[in-house]
């Protein structure tokens, strides 16, 4: 018996497809039934705290000086520029004044902490 003729080959392939289908059909039915009975556990949802009611406390200290001001600015070279806009400040807040002689500067504040 040869399977090379057209009629025998098609019957052979048809029988293989049917056998494969018959074997895999019960496996697919078992898989869907197992999935159908599975129920995923639920996790209770916790409401997120509202951001409207958050009140930030002011820091107990204040960092001042030329270095701190340079880190806060977008263009830190404006600190030393005489043509800088007035909104950048006039620099008097970074000057240490002599308490004995009013109006006379004593030095500059590079880095300072006030509490």
Describe the structure.
This protein has 115 residues and is of the alpha+beta class. It has two domains: 1-35; 62-114, no CATH class. The chain is built from two helices and four strands. It is elongated.
Record the SSE blueprint.
Layout: H1 6-36, E1 62-64, H2 66-72, E2 95-97, E3 105-108, E4 112-114
Antiparallel strand pairs: 1-4, 2-3
Number of helices: 2
Class derived from helix and strand content: alpha+beta
Number of strands: 4
Q: Calculate Rg over CA atoms.
A: 41 Å
- Given as residue ranges, the uncertain stretches (5+ residues, pLDDT < 50) are none
SSE run: HEHEEE
Q: Tell me what portion of residues adopts beta-strand conformation.
A: 5-15%
Number of domains: 2
Give the strand order of the largest sheet, numbering strands 1, 2, ... along the chain. 1-4
Q: What is the helical fraction, as a range of percent?
A: 25-40%
**Major sheet description:** 2 strands, antiparallel
Query: Based on CA inertia axes, which overall geometry fits?
Result: elongated
Estimate the mean pLDDT confidence.
77
Q: Report, as a whole number of angstroms, the end-to-end distance.
A: 103 Å
